[in-house]
Specification:
Elements: E1 9-20, E2 23-35, E3 39-44, H1 50-57, E4 65-68, E5 71-74, E6 77-78, H2 84-90, E7 95-98, H3 102-105, H4 112-123, H5 128-141, H6 147-151, H7 160-172, E8 178-182, H8 190-207, E9 210-215, H9 218-224, E10 227-232, E11 235-241, H10 251-258
Parallel strand pairs: 3-9, 3-10, 7-8, 8-9
Antiparallel strand pairs: 1-2, 1-4, 1-5, 5-6, 10-11
Helix pairs in contact: 4-5, 4-7, 5-7, 7-8
Length: 282
Amino acid sequence: MSAAEPPLLEVENLRVRFHTRTGIVEAVRGLSFTLGREKLGVVGESGSGKSMTGRAILRLVPRPGEVLADRLAFRGQDLQALDEVGMRAIRGRRISMVLQDPKFSLNPVMTVGDQIAEAYRLHHKVGRAQARARTIEMLASVKIRDPRRVYGLYPHEVSGGMGQRVMIAMMLIPEPDIIIADEPTSALDVTVQMQVLAILDDLVTQRGMGLIFISHDLALVSSFCDRVLVMYGGRVMETLEARALETARHPYTRGLLACLPQLDRPAAALPTLQRDPRWLEQ
């Protein structure tokens, strides 16, 4: 992103909370960041607010959840001021989200090709033949062999890696400006994981998009992303360049890094992550 170019996404003091019978549960607490044409990693333990942040941006937080922010803007447009019709024009078309497990995200009674074509026709006024042709092109762009055959398969007929590529194709076919990828490779083996990441990297770079990459894998994020947000308890503990992750100073980030096994330095037992309640009061 150049100095004169405004951010694709601006988030200031984002809060997500749930009103329950026992009180208010704070899922995200005062989160702020900007996103340019870059790959932004968001890491942290389960329950740290990573996925909830992505859902809050797209207004996908289920009831009784409440989303508040001082500013939540896409290319300068206030997302909080949009009604649901206006938000649907953003969701999917301008900002897409790739979910963790394609088996639960795809419709089991529709072919994968028809689902991708439907996503394209929803945002582009084209006929079925044109949507089919564009879908086959997109399947080919995510490195699926014989895309015409795969077009007619049902979700249960594709592997996990191919299903994830199908999901990426579905999210990319509207040609969004931002992709939010929520653990897109966690269920895949290492070889397929690297292939999917290479596809994402190529497409983001070629199209000049912004990517929010949500993951538990610090080593993966440090090698794949440009910047990293480290979250704990709904707050950002630290923001740093991905290549500098090993030099992180916050004790939480240092604790996460210390918990990673080192093949060249095997240990009898991995250290236990120590948490300080004062981190949530900063």
